[in-house]
Amino acid sequence: MLNWNQVKTLVLFYKRMLIPTFFFTALIGLSSYSITGAYSLVQFGIAFMFVLPLMHYFLNEVLDHTAYYFYFTQGLSKLYLRTATGIISIVTMIISACL
Length: 99
Fold this sequence. Notes:
The chain is mainly alpha-helical.
């Protein structure tokens, strides 16, 4: 069970990933729009499902591999953060497919 401090830490963790993820997902959607002539939320969800884990890897493994020490001292392991990223991306894809 997460305490309030861990929830704030998760918000901090995803705040630095979500803006670039939405930007790149929108670019993928616009390129898809130029090919197919239609923009759909399903394409957005599928792109988001792949871009969020890639941003997670790029920002936390390549650029700042020491950031995990901060999250670990807050009680969030690397496995927990990766699992939460996968769950968030899959849930976003399912929600966008249902809309």
